[in-house]
Inverse folding.
């Protein structure tokens, strides 16, 4: 794994090099600013598998750098881990919205960094495997191909508040129990997702899920929220808890937004997505529900509604 680290503190970069070397990651390039990082990333002679970005830097912040990296075709899906000494979760949320996959705190803990980079390595291996399959299929048939399974939680980036499933779970884990109590977890099930998947190819399926994501994003606009596609035609959202949250209203707004695509989908021979909104789930102070279980409960609630309508 070739890593690019960006931090304006040369002492920290030396420490980071030592920590990464100790856990087996010796192929590291370090720079001191966002502009230097972009110059390296634009150089066709260099290729990086993972980026470590400090959030708080003078000039271009790590969040702005992350946003610019995500706009680069060659690094649109490259794993990005943010590094921060700040305790404010607002900056972490902005980083995830900009396209970050994960984050770690300063001072760097060797075990935590090793765990994060092992996850990054798994992500890179999976994306390389998929790219290999897509390249082979494209060569065989002469057409652009996106190889995606129905269960796969592919990353959808067309809507502003949509992040990857891994990033959403990592964000939830950063909140801690008290802050998590201030959030609700809500799931959305495309009831006819399997029919849509069978009626089109990988590109058409992802485009359809992206339209659903945009509809959900618009329906939640009155609430601070983050959304992720979880696979199987399901989305999970975290929303700031408010007494006036109305799932029926959210359902109506999603249906209204998707109805605009009715004629297009009819012409393409693709079923119009039918979305069901599950019951909002809350983390209790004393129940100690784990984040993965909270997400699973939200998805199960949406599935029940999809199967009973």
């Amino acid at each position: 794994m070739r890593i690019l680290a960006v931090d304006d503190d040369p002492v920290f970069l030396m420490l980071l090099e030592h920590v990464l070397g100790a856990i087996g990651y010796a192929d590291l390039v370090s720079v001191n600013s966002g502009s230097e990082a972009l110059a390296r990333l634009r150089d066709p002679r260099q290729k990086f598998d993972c980026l470590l970005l400090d959030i708080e830097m003078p000039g271009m912040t790590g969040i702005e750098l992350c946003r610019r990296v995500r706009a680069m075709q060659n690094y649109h899906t490259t794993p990005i881990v943010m590094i921060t000494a700040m305790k404010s979760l607002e900056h972490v949320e902005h980083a995830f919205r900009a396209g970050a996959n994960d984050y770690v705190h300063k001072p760097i803990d060797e075990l935590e960094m090793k765990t994060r980079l092992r996850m990054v390595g798994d992500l890179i291996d999976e994306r390389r495997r998929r790219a290999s399959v897509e390249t082979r299929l494209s060569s065989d048939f002469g057409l652009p191909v996106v190889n995606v399974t129905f269960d796969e939680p592919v990353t959808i980036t067309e809507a502003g508040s949509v992040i990857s499933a891994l990033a959403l779970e990592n964000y939830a884990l950063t909140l801690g129990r008290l802050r998590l109590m201030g959030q609700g977890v809500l799931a959305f099930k495309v009831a006819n997702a399997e029919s849509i998947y069978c009626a089109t190819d990988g590109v058409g399926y992802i485009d359809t899920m992206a339209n659903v994501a945009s509809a959900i994003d618009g329906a939640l606009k009155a609430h601070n929220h983050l959304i992720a596609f979880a696979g199987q035609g399901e989305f999970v959202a975290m929303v700031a808890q408010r007494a006036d949250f109305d799932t029926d209203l959210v359902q109506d707004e999603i249906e209204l937004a998707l109805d605009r695509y009715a004629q297009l989908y009819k012409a393409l021979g693709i079923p119009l997505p039918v979305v069901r909104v599950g019951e909002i789930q809350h983390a209790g102070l004393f129940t100690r529900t784990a984040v993965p279980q909270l997400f699973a409960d939200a998805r199960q609630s949406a599935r029940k509604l999809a199967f009973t309508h």
The chain has a mean pLDDT of 87. DSSP finds eleven helices and eleven strands in the chain. The first strand starts at residue 3 and ends at 6.
